[in-house]
Structures are given as C-alpha cells and as structure tokens.
Design goal:
single chain; alpha/beta; five-stranded parallel sheet; 10 helices; 10% strand; disordered C terminus
Length: 223
C-alpha cells in the first residue's frame, strides 16, 4: 500500500491534502501530522513512507528548518513542499534544499493530485508560474553552504544555535549538560563541516542564510 505523510498544522488543509492523495491514489494510506515532532515520531515508528507533503509554516519550525531536518535525517524520503507562500525565491530555495517539488496551497484538488502523481513517478513538480532560471539567484557558494548545514548532526545543530545566540563554550556545556571538552569537539567539527575558521564566521554565514529567508538559527525538533 502506498503511504503518504501529510505535515501541516491546519486540520482543514490536512483534510484537503488527504482528499487529493485519495484522488491520486485511491485506497492509499495517508497519515496527518500537526508538527514536525509528530512527523518524526511517525517516520521512526512506521518506516516505509513513499512521500511526505510538508508545509513550511508550522509552530515548531522556522524558515526551511523542517525541510532541512527531513532531508538530513530521512534522506530516502521524497519531500514535496506545499505552501501558501509562492515567492519565486522561496521556491528556488526549497529546490536547493533537495525537495522533490513545490505545490502552491492555492492549487485545485485536481492539480494537487496531478502533482503528487508526477512526483511519485520520479519527476519534479513545480507550478506553471515558476520561472526557469530563478534558482540561479542562489549563488554557488550559498548552495554549498546549504549542503554543509545539512551535514550537521542534531547535537551539532544545537551547538550551532547556541553559538549564534552568543553563548560561550562553558555556557553551552551547562545548557547541554555535557563537558566543556565535548562542546569544544562539537565546535571544531562544526567549523570543519562548514569550512570556516572561527565562531564569528559561523555566525556570519548563518546570518547570510537568514537574510535570504532560507534559515534561522535552528534547533532540531524536540519533545
């Protein structure tokens, strides 16, 4: 049985997506999650989902955090973003993060169903209004930094978030209840993975992504 995961905090739109999934794949199994935390619980407890439909705007994520987390921790799961924000640059950023497509929430049910079928067949879906070449607005260095961010582990993401908040190693160690030596090791690995030489450069790179609306200083979802 084909399995879908619908991740959206609005019950009415989850129902609308469920209806579109049923139209595209009658008899399929579609589960709804109201948060990224709930979605991760489903993915961990019931592996084998064929496609996730993800809203960018949810209470427990900011910017591209949800997509980044799914692509990092469930790399085999195709993710289609279904969003009410149809800005061309946002669509380009979504695709840079490795989404399998972008569907505007304003789409009719038949279009939603067609888009789902297209992605399930192995193609990428983008709205007709999307202009070819917009993805070039994300320069090569930014794309590389996005990929580097995606390589961080959940604990490294927590440390990165605290670095961006201005915390010292001693303070980070206290917050995470680990030794300062462990924090130093995480910081060193973050610098290596992001290909920067100092904590200041880390903050600068994250702020650049923030300015693009790509990501905020992020922490992985927690209970």
């Amino acid at each position: 049985m084909t399995k879908f995961l619908i991740i959206d905090d609005h019950p009415l739109f989850r129902e609308a997506l469920h209806s579109a999934v049923e139209l595209a794949y009658p008899g399929s199994d579609a589960l709804g999650a109201a948060s990224l935390v709930d979605a991760c619980r489903f993915l961990d407890a019931r592996p084998g989902f064929d496609l996730a439909l993800l809203d960018l705007s949810m209470p427990d994520v900011t910017g591209m955090e949800g997509l980044l987390h799914l692509r990092t921790h469930y790399p085999q799961l195709p993710v289609v973003v279904v969003s009410g924000v149809e800005d061309q640059a946002i669509i380009a950023q979504v695709m840079a993060y490795g989404a399998a497509g972008f569907i505007p929430k304003s789409s009719k049910k038949t279009i939603l169903a067609k888009a789902i079928q297209q992605v399930m067949s192995g193609a990428v879906y983008l709205p007709e209004s999307y202009e070819d070449g917009v993805e070039e607005s994300i320069d090569e260095e930014t794309s590389r930094m996005i990929e580097r961010m995606a390589s961080l582990t959940p604990q490294q993401i927590r440390v990165l978030n605290m670095i961006c908040d201005g915390l010292l190693n001693k303070q980070i160690a206290y917050e995470l209840q680990v030794g300062e030596t462990t924090v130093k090791a995480h910081v060193s690995e973050i610098l290596r993975k992001l290909a920067v030489s100092s904590r200041t450069q880390v903050v600068i790179e994250v702020k650049k992504l923030e300015a693009l609306g790509t990501v905020a200083p992020f922490a992985p979802p927690s209970d």
